[in-house]
Amino acid sequence: MDLLAAVRSDVEREFSWWQKDVRSLFGTPRQPPLTSRMDVDVAIVGGGFTGLWTALILKERNPQLRVAILDAYRCGDGASSRNGGNVHGYWGALPTLLPIFGADKSIEAARLGTVAQGRLRKFATAHRRDVWWVEEGYLRVATSPAQVKKIREFVRTARDLGLGDTLRQLPQGELRELCNSPRFLEGLLFTEGATVNPGRLVHELRQAALDAGISIFENSPVRRVQKGSVNFVETDRGAVTARDVVLATYTGTMGLSPVARSTTLFSSFPVMSDPDPEYLESINYRKARGLADLRMFTHYFRRTNDGRVLMGSGSGPLEWGSAHNSEKLRNDGASARRAAIGLQRFFPGMSGGVATSWGYPIEVTSDRLPYFGTLQGSRIHYGSGYSGHGVNATVIAGECLSSLILNQKDEWTTSAFCSRNRMTFPIEPFRFVGGTMVRDAIVRCEDAEDAGRRQPLIAQAISNLPRVMGMRVGTR
Description:
Blueprint: H1 17-26, E1 37-45, H2 49-61, E2 67-70, E3 86-87, H3 94-125, E4 138-142, H4 145-160, E5 167-170, H5 172-178, E6 186-190, E7 194-195, H6 198-211, E8 215-217, E9 222-226, E10 231-235, E11 239-247, H7 257-260, E12 263-273, H8 277-282, E13 290-293, E14 299-303, E15 309-313, H9 333-346, E16 354-357, E17 360-365, E18 371-374, E19 380-384, H10 390-405, H11 430-450, H12 457-463, H13 465-468
């Protein structure tokens, strides 16, 4: 089985602000590449959040396991250190999950997200790790009347399910005591939520893996996995034999047919502002709490410890099939400008401007929930579809993949994260062409809503097509 080549993560001009920050502190220590043949129990392809959490949880459950991580570049330099650093589970996703999975499965998924949040908290706060962990809840804000309606519908749903303790509705006055942006109309404060510096977190996870005796080989791209009773994993200059293989390659799993059928390639683009702590103090944005508006393609944002604001837009370009190494998924001026406009719109009094911007591919599953499984007839495991919940969902990944590897039937393997039927997307070229049309239409509709204008009728009709087809991606 040939694997997709890893997305380039070594291009310095494309580094995130987080990567530059962690390099300024720790430099770029590297583990040597694999240059020989070795035998292990578990070989993990990919050294980001998913691979590192899986390795650490495996060693915690069975310290005798021999575990090796193989990364094409340097551990954590891919998607893990390029996200927004908002850490939250699935309580805020219930409106999307309920029509698909029903109340019991949806609430179970959210409760497992809370378990993952606890593991993250424990790791981040242990041994005085300086990963900028701030746990002050997660705030969703309405910036248009249509989004206010979403807030009220969500509150009714939570109360009907007896989940009122997971959130608090904030009228404008209370909301502005937490962040006094002129664009905020109402808010929902979820009790579960934190922010972190993802570059520092992945650095600490990498070090914890080394301390736990996990073998890490960097600059060791895996080209091929030959499956069998013992799997054979080939790199450029070496090889590993392993009973179990984990493909922790994020968008690289688009090369697997069970993933490709029900997952599509998007991209996300954040910008990081220059520091202006005085202004943020003046508008009551004193704590590094994560926020997002209620658009379909959200603006997600958060304050940093040094008084910056990260603003991201999840409305980047799509790509055809499994072309996750496409340049436009990492460099798209229109998407970066959209995030910069959001920064100016929500925080008009900030001095300075945009310090840097970056982009990277993301995966979105057809039902908006990540999935972890095993290729039929093999001991090759994989995970996909973290969009919007990356930091928390990768801990869920570590739990689920560890249970699959250890043949444990538990709350992880019986959950919707590992056991569900997934809707498939249309085949190419219909997926790409249709997805691009719908994405563009939704952006136009939501831009009009935010500006108080009438939504374009044609764009409105196109944006409703996924709902008509029974899909959950691209629905508003």
